[in-house]
Design brief:
Aspartate Aminotransferase, domain 1; globular; Aspartate Aminotransferase, domain 2; alpha/beta; disordered N terminus; seven-stranded mixed β-sheet
C-alpha cells in the first residue's frame, strides 16, 4: 500500500498520538473544506483536522496577512511590544464576553490553560483547580493534571505524579441517572457544590471547564447549569475559567462557546481557531482586576513564541473573516447537522444519542441489547466497531473525529461548510454505519 510505504520510508518522524498499529493518513493538499492524500484521494475534512481549521484550508486573507507580517518583521520577543500583537489584543477585547479585556498570549491550548491556572492560583492565593471527569485540557504535565480523560492522564502520570487538580462529574445523564434537563442541571449543580465544600472552598482557585464539551462528547450543559456554576463561583469566591480552545471563534455559533450560555467567566483560554490553525497561537483573556494584579505584581513566566507576530497577523485577519458571515453561516446551517444526525439516530438502533451545538456534534453508539457501549476503552480492550465506522467513512471520502471515550464520533466541519457539504458528509456517515452494523 502506498500509505504503508510512505510511513516506512520516513522512519525519522514520530507522529503525535502515535499508534504502531495504525497508518496515519498522508495529507498533501487542501482547499476549502477538503483535503487530499498522497494518492490524490479527496476527503471532506469533517474533523477540521484537530477541530481547528475553522476557515478551511485555503483562506487567502489569513495567508496574505501572515506573508505581509513575515516580510515586515517575522519575530519580536514576547517580552517586548509590537503593533500587531497589541492590535490583536484590542480586537479580542472587543469580541470577548463582557468583563474580559486583557490578553496574555501563548503558543498552544495546553500552555494557555496552564497560564490561566497559574494566574488564578497567584490571584486567589489558593492551590486547587476543579475540572470535569472526561474533560481534555491538554497533554503537557500541567495541563495533563487538569485533564479528566483517564487515558491522557495515565500516560502522563506513568512515571511522575501531577497534583493541584480535583475532579467533578460532567452534567451528563449517565452521571446523574436522569434525562430530564431541569433535574440534571439541579443534580449536577448540587454535586459540584458538594465537591467544592468537600475540598474546602478557601483552597480552590478556579473551576476550569469547557462550555460545550469537545472531544469528550460535544455535550452541552442542560439549561440553567452554568448559571448555577456561576452562582457557586460567586458564593465561594472561585474564578470561572472557560476553556475555549475548541469552542472559541464561531465553532458553537457565537464568538465563544460560553456566550451561548449567557454567562460571563473570569477568564477564557483560546487557541486553534484564533488563526484557523494556519500558525500556532493561543492565550488567556482576563478581567481588568486580574490584569491589574499582574501589572502591579509582575508575572515572571513567558514563552519564546507567545504572541508570535506572524500568528497575531493571522489572528487579526481571521477575526475579520469570522465577522464577515462565517459565524452567521454556523447559525444558519446548524439545523442541517442537527436534523441529519437525528435522522441517523432514528434509522440506526446502535446510535443511542446525538448532541451538540453549532458545528460541534457527536453521536454515541451502544449495543441495543445491553444499552452499553460495544467497547468501552476504560474497562475492556475488545474490538471497537466504532473505529470501523471511522475507517468506512474515510474509505468513502469523509474524515470524522474519534471521541474520548471511543464509543463516540465527533462531527466538526470547517465553519465555511455549506448545505451540500454537510449533506454529503451526513450521507457518508449514514452509509458507513450501515456498512458496519447493517
Amino acid at each position: 500500500m502506498a500509505q504503508q510505504e510512505t510511513r516506512t520510508a520516513n522512519p525519522a518522524l514520530i507522529h503525535h498520538w502515535y499508534d504502531p498499529n495504525t497508518t496515519p493518513l498522508n495529507i498533501t493538499d487542501g482547499d476549502g473544506v477538503s483535503v487530499w492524500d498522497d494518492n490524490g484521494k479527496e476527503y471532506l475534512d469533517f474533523c477540521s483536522q484537530l477541530y481547528c481549521t475553522n476557515l478551511g484550508h485555503s483562506n487567502e486573507a489569513v495567508i496574505e496577512a501572515m506573508d505581509e507580517q513575515a516580510h515586515q518583521i517575522p519575530y519580536v520577543s514576547s517580552a517586548k511590544r509590537t503593533p500587531v500583537r497589541e492590535e490583536l489584543a484590542s480586537q479580542l477585547a472587543q469580541i470577548a464576553p463582557d468583563g474580559l479585556s486583557n490578553t496574555f498570549f501563548s503558543v498552544s491550548g495546553s500552555e494557555a490553560n496552564e497560564i490561566a491556572v497559574q494566574l488564578a492560583r497567584e490571584y486567589q492565593d489558593a492551590p486547587t483547580v476543579l475540572t470535569r471527569w472526561r474533560s481534555y485540557h491538554g497533554g503537557t504535565y500541567g495541563a495533563g493534571a487538569l485533564t479528566g480523560d483517564p487515558e491522557t492522564r495515565a500516560t502522563i502520570e506513568r512515571h511522575a505524579t501531577t497534583s493541584g487538580a480535583a475532579k467533578f462529574l460532567p452534567p451528563i445523564p449517565k452521571a446523574f441517572d436522569t434525562h430530564d434537563p431541569a433535574e440534571l442541571a439541579r443534580r449536577a449543580g448540587e454535586h459540584l457544590e458538594f465537591v467544592i465544600r468537600n475540598e474546602d472552598p478557601d483552597s480552590i482557585a478556579a473551576i476550569l471547564t469547557e462550555p460545550i464539551a469537545g472531544t469528550s462528547g460535544a455535550f452541552p450543559a442542560p439549561p440553567g447549569y452554568f448559571d448555577h456554576v456561576r452562582d457557586l463561583c460567586d458564593e465561594y469566591d472561585i474564578l470561572l475559567i472557560s476553556d475555549e480552545v475548541i469552542t472559541g471563534f464561531g465553532r458553537c455559533g457565537d464568538w465563544f462557546g460560553i456566550q451561548t450560555e449567557s454567562v460571563n467567566p473570569d477568564m477564557i483560554t483560546f487557541a486553534k481557531g484564533i488563526t484557523s490553525a494556519y500558525t500556532p497561537l493561543a492565550g488567556v483573556i482576563t478581567t481588568p482586576e486580574i490584569a491589574s494584579f499582574v501589572q502591579t505584581n509582575g508575572f515572571d513566566i513567558g514563552q519564546t513564541f507567545g504572541g508570535h507576530p506572524v500568528g497575531c497577523a493571522a489572528g487579526c485577519a481571521a477575526l475579520e473573516v469570522y465577522a464577515d458571515g462565517v459565524i452567521d453561516n454556523v447559525t444558519d446551517q446548524e439545523t442541517i447537522l442537527e436534523t441529519g444526525l437525528q435522522e441517523i439516530e432514528a434509522e440506526h438502533t446502535v446510535v443511542s444519542d446525538t448532541r451538540g451545538r453549532g458545528f460541534l456534534w457527536a453521536i454515541e453508539f451502544t449495543d441495543p441489547e445491553t444499552d452499553e457501549p460495544f467497547q468501552d476503552p476504560r474497562v475492556t480492550d475488545e474490538e471497537n466497531p466504532v473505529r470501523d465506522v471511522l475507517q468506512e467513512s474515510r474509505k468513502r471520502g469523509a474524515l470524522f473525529g474519534s471521541g474520548r471515550p471511543g464509543f463516540q464520533i465527533i462531527i466538526s466541519p470547517p465553519l465555511i461548510a455549506d448545505q451540500n457539504d454537510l449533506q454529503q458528509a451526513l450521507d457518508i456517515l449514514n452509509e458507513s454505519i450501515t456498512a458496519v452494523f447493517g
